[in-house]
Design brief:
Bound molecules: nicotinamide-adenine-dinucleotide
CATH superfamily of the largest domain: NAD(P)-binding Rossmann-like Domain
Distance between the termini: 40 Å
Number of domains: 4
Helix content: 40-55%
Strand content: 5-15%
Number of helices: 20
Oligomer: single chain
Number of strands: 14
CATH architecture of the largest domain: 3-Layer(aba) Sandwich
Shape: elongated
Strand order of the largest sheet: 3-2-1-4-5-6-7-8
CATH topology of the largest domain: Rossmann fold
CATH class of the largest domain: Alpha Beta
Length: about 500
C-alpha cells in the first residue's frame, strides 16, 4: 500500500529544478519517475543525481547503502505515459503558460483520477495553468527553490479551485522530505517572492534618490541590519535579467501597486548586459568570478576641529551615548543649538532637511545619526544638502571616537536601514492582512527562503509596531508616495498596542 513516505512521484521536466526535485524525493524514500521531452535531459538528470549521491558518500554524509537505496528509487522515463501509476505529479518544465496548460490537460488523461498534479511555476497563476483541466481541484502549486535539496522551504499554493485534500496530500508528502512546507494563496509571487519585493524596490529607490551608493546600501544591510547580503549583491547573484522580469510581472499582476513599483534605472542596465555574476559585471565587477570590493566602502575617521561644540537633540534616542562619544572625542556639549558648531539629531522616517524644518535648526550645521539598529552596530550619519564639510567631519570624528565603523550618506527619509526594514515589515504585514499565508508561515518562509535574519512580522515586533508606523508615516509625509502607506494589519496592531506575531490579534 502507498503511504505518505513511499509514494510514486513523477517529475516532468528534468532541467535545473526538475533534477533537484528528483534528488530530494529519491533521498526521502519515494519512487521517482522523471520525464522530459528531451531524452538527453533525462539522461543528464539521472547522471547528475547519481553524481550527487556519489559525492555525498565520498564526503561521508550518507553511507553507500543509503545512496544505493536512493538511487534505486530513480525511474527515468522516455514517454509521458510511463508515469501513469504515480500518486503525485510535479511539473517543472519551462515557464510558459501555453506549454504548461497543454501539459496539464494531457496529464489528466495519463494519470489516475486520484493523482495530484502540481506545478513548480515561479510566476504563473495556478488557476491559469489549470484552466483546461477537467478537475482543477486536484491541481496546486508546489514551489521549490534553487538548489532544491539545500533550500529547505516549499510553498504549497492553493488556487481558488484547489481542494483542501490536495493541499493536505502535498503537505504530507513534503513533510517526509524534512523541508518546511508553507501554505500560500494563488496570488502574484505567492508568498516568498511577494515578501522579497521590499528589499529590492526600496534599495533601488535609495539609489535612484542618490541617498547612498549601492555598496553603501549593501554594507549597511549586512553590518547594521544583520542581513547576509544587501539588495544589490542579491540582484547580482540572481541575475538582473531574471529579477527585472519578476519585478515587472509582480508589479503588473498587483495592478501597479506602488509598493512594488520597479525602478527606471533597471532597463538600461539590462539592455547593457549588466546582469551580475553570470556576465562578470552587474552592480559589482567579478573578474575571475570573484566579487571585486569597491574602494572606499568604509570611511576613515577625521580629527575633531578645534573648539567643536555639539548640541544633541534632547529627543535623540541615543542621547546619553552620543553625549559620551562627543566628550570622548574632545567636543564641548552645548545646551542650545545657537551655541553649537554641530547639531546632532536622530529622526525617525524623515530626512535631515525635514528634521531641521520641524525643529527650526540650521541645516548647514546639522548631521543625523540613525538610531537603528543601535550604536553597537555600523553607524549611519546622514547629511542635509547644505551640511558644511566641517560639521560632517566633526560628526564623523565623534561617531568614530570609539573606532566603531560608520557610513556617511546623503539626505534620505528614513536613512537606509529604517526605510529598508520598515518596507519589508509593511509588505509582510500586508501579506498577513490579505490572508495569503499565516503569520507563522510568512516568517518561516522568509527566514528560510530569503535568508533574512528574521521574518517580516517578527522583525516588526522587534522594532516595535508603533516605531515601524512612525517610520512609514514619516516617509509618506516627506515623499508623498503612497508606497509607504502602512498596511491595515500593521496600523491596527500598532494602534492597539498588540504584537504582530502573537496573541489573538495575530490570528485574524
Ligand atoms: N531555476 C530556478 O531558480 C527556479 C526556481 C523555482 C521555480 N522555477 C520554475 O521551475 C520550472 C523549470 O525551471 P528550470 O529552471 O528547471 O528550467 P530548465 O530550462 O532548466 O528546464 C526545463 C526543462 O523542461 C523541459 N521541457 C520543456 N517542455 C516540456 C514538456 N512539454 N514536457 C516535458 N519537459 C519539457 C526542457 O526540455 C527542460 O529540460 C519553471 O516553471 C520555473 O519558473 C525555477
Amino acid at each position: 500500500m502507498t503511504t505518505e513516505s513511499n509514494q510514486t512521484i513523477a517529475v516532468i521536466g528534468a532541467g535545473a529544478m526538475g533534477r533537484g526535485i528528483v534528488q530530494l524525493f529519491a533521498q526521502s524514500g519515494h519512487r521517482v519517475k522523471f520525464y522530459d521531452t528531451s531524452e538527453a535531459a533525462v539522461a543528464a538528470a539521472h547522471a547528475f543525481v547519481t553524481d550527487m549521491f556519489d559525492s555525498k558518500v565520498d564526503k561521508g554524509r550518507v553511507s553507500r547503502e543509503e545512496a544505493d537505496q536512493a538511487l534505486a528509487n530513480l525511474v527515468p522515463c522516455t514517454q509521458l505515459g510511463d508515469i501513469a501509476d504515480c500518486d503525485i505529479v510535479v511539473e517543472a518544465v519551462l515557464e510558459d503558460l501555453e506549454v504548461k496548460r497543454g501539459l496539464f490537460a494531457e496529464l489528466e488523461t495519463v494519470v489516475s483520477p486520484s493523482a495530484v498534479i502540481a506545478s513548480n511555476t515561479s510566476s504563473l497563476l495556478i488557476a491559469d495553468i489549470a484552466a483546461r483541466c477537467k478537475h482543477p481541484e486536484r491541481v496546486a502549486g508546489l514551489h521549490f527553490f534553487n538548489p532544491v535539496p539545500v533550500m529547505r522551504v516549499v510553498e504549497i499554493i492553493s488556487s481558488v479551485r484547489t481542494a483542501a485534500v490536495t493541499v493536505d496530500r502535498l503537505k504530507a508528502c513534503i513533510d517526509t522530505t524534512g523541508h518546511r512546507a508553507v501554505l500560500a494563496q494563488d496570488q502574484p509571487g505567492f508568498l516568498i517572492n511577494h515578501a522579497g519585493r521590499g528589499l529590492y524596490t526600496e534599495g533601488l529607490r535609495i539609489l535612484e534618490e542618490r541617498a547612498a551608493s549601492h555598496d553603501q546600501v549593501d554594507l549597511l544591510m549586512r553590518e547594521a541590519a544583520g542581513f547576509r547580503m544587501g539588495p544589490f549583491e542579491l540582484l547580482d547573484l540572481t541575475g538582473l535579467d531574471v529579477s527585472s522580469k519578476v519585478m515587472q510581472s509582480i508589479y503588473d499582476q498587483f495592478q501597479q501597486e506602488p509598493r512594488f513599483r520597479p525602478s527606471s534605472i533597471i532597463p538600461p542596465r539590462v539592455a547593457a548586459g549588466l546582469f551580475g555574476r553570470k556576465t562578470g559585471e552587474g552592480w559589482y565587477q567579478y573578474p575571475d568570478g570573484k566579487k571585486l570590493e569597491p574602494a572606499g566602502a568604509g570611511e576613515t575617521c577625521p580629527t575633531l576641529s578645534d573648539n567643536c561644540s555639539v548640541w544633541i537633540d534632547p529627543e535623540a534616542e541615543d542621547h546619553a551615548e552620543l553625549s559620551a562619544l562627543s566628550q570622548k572625542a574632545g567636543a564641548r556639549l552645548a545646551q542650545s543649538p545657537d551655541d553649537a558648531s554641530l547639531l546632532l539629531v536622530q529622526p525617525w522616517g524623515i530626512d535631515v532637511s525635514q528634521a531641521c524644518a520641524d525643529l527650526d535648526l540650521d541645516a548647514s550645521r546639522c548631521v543625523a545619526v540613525d538610531p537603528l539598529p543601535s550604536l553597537e552596530m555600523r553607524r549611519t550619519l546622514m547629511l542635509s544638502p547644505i551640511t558644511r564639510a566641517q560639521s560632517r567631519d566633526d560628526a564623523a570624528a565623534i561617531l568614530g571616537a570609539d573606532n566603531a565603523p560608520y557610513t556617511i550618506i546623503s539626505d534620505s527619509p528614513g536613512f537606509v536601514v529604517q526605510r529598508m526594514l520598515a518596507t519589508i515589515v509593511n509588505i509582510g504585514t500586508n501579506i498577513a492582512q490579505r490572508g495569503i499565508a499565516s503569520v507563522e508561515d510568512i516568517d518561516d518562509a522568509v527566514r528560510i527562503g530569503l535568508g533574512y535574519p528574521a521574518g517580516p512580522l517578527a522583525l516588526g515586533d522587534s522594532l516595535g509596531p508603533h516605531r515601524v508606523m512612525q517610520i512609514l508615516e514619516g516617509m509618506q509625509r516627506v515623499t508623498g508616495d503612497p508606497r509607504y502607506r502602512p498596511s491595515h494589519w500593521l496600523r491596527r496592531r500598532a494602534q492597539l498596542g498588540e504584537s504582530l506575531t502573537t496573541g489573538e490579534a495575530a490570528r485574524g
